[in-house]
Amino acid sequence: MNAVRYAAVDSWIVAKRDLIHWVREPVRVFANLAYPIVSVLIFGLVFGSAMNVFGGGDYIEFLLPGMFGQTIAFGVAATMMMVSMDADRGVTDRFRASPMSQTGVVAGRSFADLVNSSLELLVLALCGLAMGWSFHHGLLKALVAFALLLWLRFALVWIGIYLGLLVKPEAASASWMFLFPLTMFANTFVSPELMPGWLRVVAEWNPLSSTVAAARELFGNPGVGGDSWAAQNSLLLAVLWPAVFVAIFWPLSVVKYRNLSR
Amino acid sequence: MLAEGLHKRFDGKAALDGFDLAVPAGTVCGLLGPNGAGKTTAVRILATLLRLDGGRAEVAGHDVVREAPAVRRQVALNGQQSTVDDVLTGRENLVMWGRLYHLSKRQASLRAEELLEQFGLADAADKRAKHYSGGMRRRLDLASSFITAPSVLFLDEPTTGLDPRNRGEVWREVKRVVAEGTTVLLTTQYLDEADQLADQIVVMDTGRVAAQGTPDHLKSKLGGDRIEVVVRNSDELPVVAGVLGEDAEVDHDAFRVSAAVVDRVAALTRVTSALAAKGVEAEDIALRRPTLDDVFLAITGHKAVAEVQS
C-alpha cells in the first residue's frame, strides 16, 4: 500500500518540477506552440486554396485534425529530450540512488507530458475554431477524439523514454529530422489517395493516420474513408496501434532503465 | 564500508579488477587516481547504481546487491555533474529532494530551512538557482545530499571545475558533516584535496588498489615540493647545483637543476638572492608540487594510462 502511495506522491513531485518550468519559462511553451499555429496559418491560408481534399470538403476542416496529430507526434521528441537531459546531467542517477519509487520517475514523466500535450491541443483547437474549423457531432464525440489523440501521446511517452535513455541530448534534439517526414507520410496534410502508389500504402498504414482519421470521423470533418482496410477501420486502429506501442516500449523502457546498472 | 575483490567489466575491458576497500565508520577515505582508474565505477557500485560482476560489498551494514533499498535509505550520492534544477529556487530544490526522500511536506520544508542555514544559502533561498555562483550551486547540490543526514556520503570529484575559494567552501562543508559522524568516500584527481580531507588515501590504478595509507605516509613515499631553476648557459649548471645543495639533480639537456625543498617561499627567496649574488641569470625559477602523475610514477612505476570508461 505504501508503495502505491509513494509512487503517486513521487510522480506528482517529478511532474510538478516540469510544470513549474513551464510556468516560469513560458518561452519554451510558446516556442513549442508557435510551430503548429504558424503551420495552420501557412497551410490554411497560403496553400489552402491550392489543396484538394479527396472526396471534397473545406481544407481547414481537413487540416486541423492533421495538425492535432502532428503536434502529438512531435511530443515524442519532447519526451526524449527531457529523459536524455536528466540522464546526461546525473539527475536520473540521483533518482536511482534515492529511496524514491522508481515507478514514480516514469509516471511523473508521462503525467507532465500529457498535461503539456493537452495544453497544446487546447490552444491549437482555439486557433482552429477562430479560423473556421469546427466539430459537428457534439462535444462528447469531440472529447473522445481528443482522448484518442492523448492515448497516442501516452504511447509515445514510452517510446520517448526508451529512446531518451538510448541517446544523448544532442541526438535527441536532432530527432525532428526523422519525425518531420514521418508525420507527413500520412493523412495529416494531404489525402493518401492523392499520393503515388507505394507512399499511399505507407501513409494509409501509418499509425498516426489511424488516429487522425478517427479524429476526423468523430469531429465530423471531411476526408474520412478510403478503400484500404486501415482507412475503414481507423477507430479500431487508433485504439490498437498505441496499445501495441505501449506493449512493446513499456517493457523495453523498464529493461533499459534497469540496465543502466549494467 | 567494505568491498572485497570487486570485479566489473565494460565491453570485455576490466574497469575493476579485484578492488578491495575498508572504510571505518565516521572517517573520510580519499580515492585517488587518473581518469579511467576505476574510481567512478567503484563509487557507482557502492552506491547501488551499477551491478558488480564479482566480489561483494557492504555499505552501512547492508549488502549492496541483496539489500540495495536499505543501502539507498542510508547513502547519498553527489556526482561530478550538478543536479541542481536551475529554474527552481534553492529552497524548492531542497524541498523537492526532501519529498523524494519521503519526508512529509512539513518535514521537508523544515529540513530545507535548516540546510539553507547550515550551508550559508539562507539569503539566496528564494532566488532561482540559475542566478547562483558556481560555489553556491555546488553547496546547494551538497545540501540536497544531506536531506536525511546520510550515514554514508559518496562524493565523486566534488570540486572539479571550481575556483580555489569555492573549493575551500566545499571542503569546509565536508569537514562539518564528517564531524557529525558521516562516513565519506571521496574521489578526486587532486592530491591536495585528499590531503585536506581524507583520513585514509587509496590510490587506484587500472581497477586495483595501487597503494594506501594516511596522507603523511604517502607523501613521505613521494617526497615533497621541488624547486627548479632553468639557465640559459650550460656552464652555469654547476654553479646553480652548488646553490641548491647536495641532492640537486642536474638535467643537462633541459639546462635545468632541481632539488627538494621544505619551506617553499623561504627557499625561493634564498635561491633567488644566492643566484643574484653569484651573477647567474636564470631563465626560469619555479616551485613544483608533486602532481598526481608523480604519485603514480612513484607508486606504480609507470605513467598513468587513461583508459576509456563508459
Automatic annotation (TrEMBL), chain A:
* Keyword list, A-Z: Antibiotic resistance, Cell membrane, Membrane, Transmembrane, Transmembrane helix, Transport
Q: Which Pfam families match?
A: ABC2_membrane
Keyword Aminoacyl-tRNA synthetase set for record? no
DNA-binding recorded as keyword:
no
Q: Which PROSITE patterns match?
A: ABC_TM2 (PS51012)
Q: Where in the cell is it found?
A: Cell membrane; Membrane
In the bilayer, the protein is annotated as:
Multi-pass membrane protein
Q: Where do transmembrane segments lie in this chain?
A: 29-50, 62-84, 119-136, 142-165, 172-190, 235-255
User: What family does this chain come from, according to its entry?
Assistant: Belongs to the ABC-2 integral membrane protein family.
What name does the UniProt record give this protein?
Transport permease protein
What's the source species' lineage? Bacteria, Bacillati, Actinomycetota, Actinomycetes, Pseudonocardiales
